[in-house]
Amino acid sequence: MPACNIDFQPIGRRGQCQGGESILDCARRLRIGISSVCGGVGTCGKCRIKILSGSVSEPTSREADDLSSKEIGEGWRLACQVYASSDIKIHVPAESMTTQQRMQVEGLETEGAFDPPVKTYQVTLAAPSLTSQEADAERLLTALSQQHRVSATEFDFSLLKTLSPQIRAWDSQFKASVRGGEVVAVSHNSDRQLGFAADLGSTKIAGYIVDITNGKTLAAKGIMNPQISYGEDIISRIAVATSSPEKGLEMQSLVTEALDSLAGDLCAEIGAKKEAIVEAVLVANTAMHHLFLGLPVRQLAMHPFAPAVSMALDVKARELGLHFAAGAYVHVLPNIAMFVGADHVAMLLATEAWREEGPVIAIDIGTNTEVSLVYNGKITAASCASGPALEGGHIKDGMRAGSGAIERVKITGDKTEYQTIEDAPPVGICGSGILDTLAQLFLAGIVDGSGRMMENHSRVRKSDKGREFVLVEAGSKDGNPAIVFTQHDVRQLQLGKSAIRSGIQMLLEANDCPEEKIKQVIIAGAFGSYIDVSSAVAIGMMPALPLERFHQVGNAAGMGAKQALISLSQRATAQAIAARVHHIELSSAPNFNKTFTEAMYLGKYRIKQGKREELS
């Protein structure tokens, strides 16, 4: 069999499968951790993968023993039994992985209001009798009024189906959770009342379980967004979702099932059940928001990119396939525009950037980077198509941030030093390492300002696809391939960094704000949490400002979602923020192409009177 390229999703690792090598053997050689309890002989069934595209060998008898014909028809195979016969893309589910990806769930915690939308009360119902046959639901409303002066007037209908047996099992003493006059849940007096907040990102999902009676976070966890196997960028996923009604439903169910499972795992950590969740809040970019809610997305990819809805929404959790309390709602924060979503609103809310007179830049870096300039009481926002290179995509040895990913690089003369996540043997380069590598190559004169890789270093070599810098030599004993950074990788990162810097520049120009006046740059998100800001400044991805003006705040969108979970006033503030933002569509801005081209060059610079001024 010929050598074939394999794209391992959702970890974002790519490699070449050699002739006669099973996918499991290829993964092992590339140090991608796929489980194999039986040692790869096809008897344990732990190495399940899904073929997403490309041609592979026919199913073996051992696969037929472990997988149903339906599963095989859907593309499920055993990695130890299957061989690639063309370039392929595969999905490796979490349960088949031996290593976990690094997730960023923590963020800047700020003191906020505590006025939860759902409040819980202990009640004792008067016993019914022949002389007083008041219905169970009405007796509960009466108890809430008399015992707590709470004016509840309605019930979630599905709750009514189980109310009578439950209150009798609890001897008419229990807790009732009320949301805006509606009884949404009843529970045993010993049960907790929980809230679930989620930041649904294109690549990762961060989830939080909060005690809704006091606002304290009880558990937090991050997982990969399973949709990533269908495309790293939003446009690809929209294309899949609009290819057929079935695919649209599949894309929705992927994220709802992931969120439901994440909530269940978090609840299990604290000894609770998902049914204890009485309220949820979700933030996402506009496309992920629409895919999650099952809203039409075709128009999002067509000029003028109009969303189906931007306002905040309240939807019953069960209507979205989430198995929470009977009447629990999911509150979805408002969007701003097609590519600037509720996640950006949540970030502005959590960082309180919206309060500043400025100038303040607030930026969440990812495949789609969202950036705002707060200046003179005005908020101007734009989205930048920074692409997947900053998360390891389209980079030869790029990968997402997992064990063994190179995250720091230092080049001194002929000496190259690197640091990997968990100090594991190197298997690839993640986003922060990619950024460091380009900055170090530029500062060492190995890559010039135009991005051209020179031949003036002992680690630069020629391949059939151009020059490449060897970060890690090939293993002489274990046969592991070298880890390299290629000329093509330089160009990919130039495109990503140019998109970000030109977005910032366009916002400054639209507000007649010189960049040296910027008081603060708030960097949010998983990628932004781990980068060396000096590397971002060195290559010109960030403005040439003193490093103390940059503040890395972690997953601020997740923090904003948590604030909205426990505070009605914060929800109102989020609505006000979204309404204040003036959105700029960069692709139609008159100067954008010129600004983007200038930003492609590496090095510190600023724009003065419309011209690029190089800085040392």
Q: Quick summary of this structure?
A:
This protein has 616 residues and is an alpha/beta fold.
The largest β sheet comes out as:
6 strands, mixed
Radius of gyration: 26 Å
CATH topology of the largest domain: Nucleotidyltransferase, domain 5
CATH architecture assignment of the largest domain: 2-Layer Sandwich
Count of domain modules? 4
From the N-terminal CA to the C-terminal CA, the straight-line distance is 53 Å
Task: Summarize the helices and strands and which ones pair or pack.
Elements: E1 4-9, E2 13-17, H1 23-29, E3 48-53, H2 61-66, H3 69-73, E4 76-78, E5 88-91, E6 118-124, H4 136-148, E7 154-155, H5 157-169, E8 173-179, E9 182-187, E10 194-200, E11 204-211, E12 217-224, H6 234-241, H7 245-269, E13 277-284, H8 286-293, E14 313-316, E15 329-332, H9 342-351, E16 360-364, E17 369-375, E18 378-384, E19 405-412, E20 415-420, E21 428-429, H10 431-443, E22 460-463, E23 466-472, E24 483-486, H11 487-510, E25 520-524, H12 526-530, H13 533-538, E26 550-554, H14 556-566, H15 568-580, E27 581-583, H16 592-599, E28 605-608, E29 611-614
Parallel strand pairs: 1-5, 7-9, 10-13, 13-15, 16-25, 18-27, 19-21, 25-26
Antiparallel strand pairs: 1-2, 3-4, 3-5, 6-8, 8-9, 10-11, 11-12, 14-15, 16-17, 17-18, 19-20, 22-23, 23-24, 28-29
Helix pairs in contact: 9-14, 9-15, 11-16, 14-15
Written account of the structure:
This protein is of the alpha/beta class. Helices cover 28% and strands 25% of the residues. The mean pLDDT is 90. The chain is globular, with a radius of gyration of 26 Å. It folds into four domains: 4-96, Ubiquitin-like (UB roll) (Roll), CATH 3.10.20; 99-332, Nucleotidyltransferase, domain 5 (2-Layer Sandwich), CATH 3.30.420; 346-387 and 500-608, ATPase, nucleotide binding domain (Nucleotidyltransferase, domain 5), CATH 3.30.420.40; 389-492, no CATH class. The protein contains 16 helices and 29 strands. The protein starts with a strand and ends with a strand. It has a six-stranded mixed sheet, sandwiched between helices. Strands 26-25-16-17-18-27 form a six-stranded mixed sheet.
